[in-house]
Amino acid sequence: MKQTLEHIFKLKDNNSSIKREVLAGFTTFLTMAYIIFVNPQMMTQAGMDQGAIFVGTCLAAAIACLFMGIYANWPIGLAPGMGLNAFFTYTVVGDMGYSWEIALGAVFLAGILFFVMSITNLRRWMIDSIPSNLRIAIGSGVGLFIGFIGLQSGGIIISNDATFLSLGDFTKYETILSAIGFLLIAVLAVRKVTGAILIGVLTITIIALFSGLIQYNGILAYPPELAPTLMKLDILGALDIAMISVIMSFLFVNLFDTTGTLLGVASRANLVDANGESSNLNKALLADSSSSIFGTVFGCSPVTSYVESSAGVEAGGRTGLTAVVVGVLFIIAIFFSPLAAMVPPYATAGALIYVAILMLTGIEKLNWSNSIEILPALIIIIMIPLTFSIADGIALGFLSYIVLKISIGEISNIASGAWFLTIIFLSKFIFL
After folding, report:
1. Between the CA atoms of 92, 95, 97 and 98, what dihedral angle is there, to the nearest 10 degrees?
2. CA 85, 111, 320, 282 torsion: positive or negative?
3. In 3D, which of 133, 134, 113, 132 has the Cα closest to residue 122?
4. pLDDT of residue 103
5. Are 380 and 138 in contact (CB under 8 A)?
6. CA distances for 99 relative to 50, 57, 103, 299, angstroms
7. What is the pLDDT of residue 428?
8. Over the stretch 278-304, which tens digit does the pLDDT of each residue have?
């Protein structure tokens, strides 16, 4: 066994060991395991079966991690991504009125496009075409989107006829627990406790259980049926012209997020050279893009690389064995469906808010001196949560960028990729 693992993962060449990689895998899993509670809960609001989504989330994450580990030999954990699952549920299904089957079809098509871009030069062309401020803004805007959803689900922010929004009712036990959950996660994270988010979610769930707010249904059980979501994607339905902007939103949010995550984690793991190049980067991108494709088979929103993988890297993970361990743990998690079903929305609200804050840290990388880029970037950040749509927020940002560039006579300096995205989103406003 030891020799086989050495042959597959090149442990000695990467100055690592089986023990170190297993520890790193457990660390990474603990930091991202919250998704097995959050994702089913969120996508259930799109009309999907909670038990099936729970199993689908675990299976999609497991297969993606195994593929990343064995094929690319990178210590990266993957699972359905936060942000795009919210876009899937609240915008595509909730606001636009499409069925979740069609929404899955859009995710599939976006995954195909991502795969094609990963095996060609299209990925590099697109990334180089989009101003860095706008790329950063998309991630931060998605963060605010997630945070707003978390504040709503926890009752911390509520609707108000007079002021549109107002502070929630803190006489309600659920609202108090939401706030406590966030503060607990924040304190644990500041103290660098591994699995802070997971601990926070489970702690609030236990408090709710002993307070009589939820019922105990057990911890372990045979996995629920996957049939309600298995192979239910509607690809033909997603070919509607109105879905183009949705597909593009799934694609580019995933593309920018994945590329940034992979390069960031790879740098920490010393998987890149002095020029920022890595021989396995293309393999890692192929593993990531492929994951979104087969994830739709199980009924999942886009599967993506998790920045939480950096926790495993800090614990010593340097090879794909770390990712394989994460994948195995996701398979084991399938048997904890009763626990997942008990977790109430206010227990995961704190997790959503905390993840949102982490995503907002990208704002510090904005180039504030470039007024031509900073204004569209801020429009994206603000309008994604205010329009409750990633697609609309990106569209308004890119349109404003083009207008500003034209206004100062720099139309020739607008990259082709920026024109491409702007035309797509502009057509959405004109024809739809």
Report:
1. 0
2. negative
3. 113
4. 96
5. yes
6. 16, 19, 6, 12
7. 66
8. 667 888 989 999 998 999 999 999 999
